[in-house]
Design brief:
Number of domains: 2
Number of strands: 16
Order of helices and strands: EEEHEEHHHEEEEHEEHHHEHHEEEHHEH
Helix content: 25-40%
Radius of gyration: 26 Å
Number of helices: 13
CATH superfamily of the largest domain: Bira Bifunctional Protein, Domain 2
Largest sheet: 8 strands, mixed
Low-confidence stretches: none
Strand order of the largest sheet: 6-10-11-16-15-14-13-12
Mean pLDDT: 92
CATH architecture of the largest domain: 2-Layer Sandwich
RNA sequence: UGUGGCGUAGCCAAGCGGUAAGGCAUCGCACUGUUAAUGCGACCAUGCGAAGGUUCGAAUCCUUCCGCCACAGCCA
């Protein structure tokens, strides 16, 4: 009798099968038991009649605690009363291990308690659904880039100095005397690999030691960063549109069940199609001023600054799909950003703001190509010149216009799922005050 | 780091100056279709995040500390 998974039940109706999993819940009614079995691919209700199983099996099943591990043999039956459409008429059951007093009961729990039990919380239906969506987001990212001619070229996690020189980094000992920093972005390395392979991307964990305490921040998060040689800001905008709409369509296609469990309004995801609105920074500022005049924003935004969370939310609330804000003041952007030749005070950068208040999911733009300009920038930003010599080599030997962006996987996943906080979109979140489990 | 809010049993939660409700989980019994099953019974805090203080009396008021949550800054 073959071991099958719960998501394969539809192919085995009428057959005798073996299922292996954990007890999700147990209800009983006299000489009848309804154990719900969870195996990682789904949950199925089983039906046990006292007289159709051996005495020992009945006694064993009757007293099973939540999350006990078991192997069940039985016949698959389509049943309208069952939530998944199928039920198992149990003929025998073997208890692999007994569990008692499982802490996460089918009741409400507080955030702290659940986070302390994250290793168990992952088994619950909602967390399972969220992490399946994450899987699909990652898969879609890779499929899209791979089939679009990008080569995976991962960047190092230990770095000798700050990539962007702005954010706070985690410092670690690197053998004798030397210090290393955990990467905050693969950006600069991408520029090197792009000059070798044309279109590249890196995809890995990223670390930020800022003491951010919001629903949009983790100290360790995953970022995908594509980079293209011979490309401009315009090319990045086009790529963002195709990239995000592909991810949304894949989530809609592959994660129907999970989106239902999460009660996601799928019309919000269906709206994520090209073209996305493109908004010049100047226009965005004008929009914020109007918002202030109408009393919808507390403070009047000053031209020249970076948008705060309420500003981003206001701008994105005007659209049903991601909005791409471009041409930010160079002063608020990274040192390597290319400048607008017409207005050198503006950088050829873009932030993609997701709808529904999810904020910046993508940041990117065109990179500066001139050796002299970058040397000046490095001085101005007080960055250690020798650490950037290799980077400057990229401008000495065959410098070309190139551009790319970075997308936070957790923010994207939270947006796809329609959930409040990014902490649920990664198996074991690392946050300001959370290093365990 | 700042501003608010909150810490009561394994979990959730009421009580807000007069001596710790209720529910879930757990255990037992009943029930051949349960959907967070239900019904009955049992068990469950010399104790209310910690330490001081005020009071005849403190979970409740005050002080300090610890922890968590939300928002802001920074960013993806």
């Amino acid at each position: 009798m073959a071991h099958i998974y719960i998501n394969q039940l539809s192919e085995h109706v009428g057959e005798e099968v073996t299922l292996k999993g954990w007890l999700y819940n147990l209800r009983s009614s006299g000489k009848l038991l309804f154990p719900q079995l969870r195996d990682g691919t789904g949950i199925v209700q089983c039906v046990v009649f006292k007289k159709s199983v051996p005495e020992e099996a009945w006694e064993a099943l009757k007293n099973l605690g939540q999350e006990s591990a078991l192997i069940i043999k039985g016949k698959v039956r389509a049943d309208e009363r069952a939530p998944g459409g199928y039920e198992i008429d149990v003929s025998s059951a073997e208890v692999v291990s007994l569990a008692h007093d499982y802490p996460i009961t089918p009741k409400e729990h507080g955030t702290e308690f659940l986070m302390d039990h994250r290793h168990l919380w992952l088994r619950s239906r909602r967390q399972h659904a969220i992490l399946k969506v994450r899987h699909t987001v990652v898969k879609a990212v890779r499929d899209f880039l791979d089939s679009d001619g990008f080569t995976l070229m991962d960047a190092p996690i230990f770095t000798p100095a700050a990539c962007e020189g702005t954010t706070t980094l985690f410092e670690v000992d690197y053998f004798d005397e030397a210090k290393a920093y955990l990467t905050q972005s693969g950006q600069l390395y991408n520029e090197a690999t792009a000059a070798a392979f044309g279109k590249v991307y890196c995809f890995g964990p990223t670390f930020r030691a800022e003491k951010s305490k919001t629903r949009r921040h983790l100290t360790e998060f995953w970022m995908v960063e594509p980079e293209m040689a011979f490309a401009t800001l315009e090319d990045v905008l086009n790529l963002c549109e195709r990239f995000l709409s592909y991810i949304a369509s894949r989530v809609l296609e592959d994660r129907k069940e999970e989106l239902k469990i999460l009660e996601r309004d799928t019309s919000k995801l269906e709206a994520i199609v090209s073209p996305f609105p493109r908004l010049h920074y100047d226009e965005a500022v004008r929009m914020l001023h109007e918002g202030h005049e109408r009393g919808e924003l507390e403070t009047r935004f000053e031209w020249g600054g970076d948008f705060g969370a309420p500003d981003e939310t206001y701008i994105s609330s005007k659209y049903d799909r991601p909005v791409m804000v471009h041409h930010y003041p160079a002063a608020v952007k990274a040192f390597y950003m290319a400048r607008d030749p017409e207005r050198p005070e503006l950088a050829l950068g873009v932030d993609v703001l997701a709808p529904e208040g999810y904020g910046e999911v993508i940041g990117g733009g065109e990179r500066a190509t001139s050796l002299e300009f970058l040397q000046g920038q490095i001085k101005e930003h007080d960055l250690p010149e020798e650490a950037f010599e290799w980077y400057l080599d990229l401008r000495r030997y065959g410098s070309v216009p190139h551009a790319g962006f970075g997308m936070g996987i957790e923010r994207c996943t939270a947006w796809m799922c329609g959930i409040e906080h990014v902490r649920e979109t990664i198996p074991f979140p690392r946050m300001l005050y959370r290093l365990k489990p």
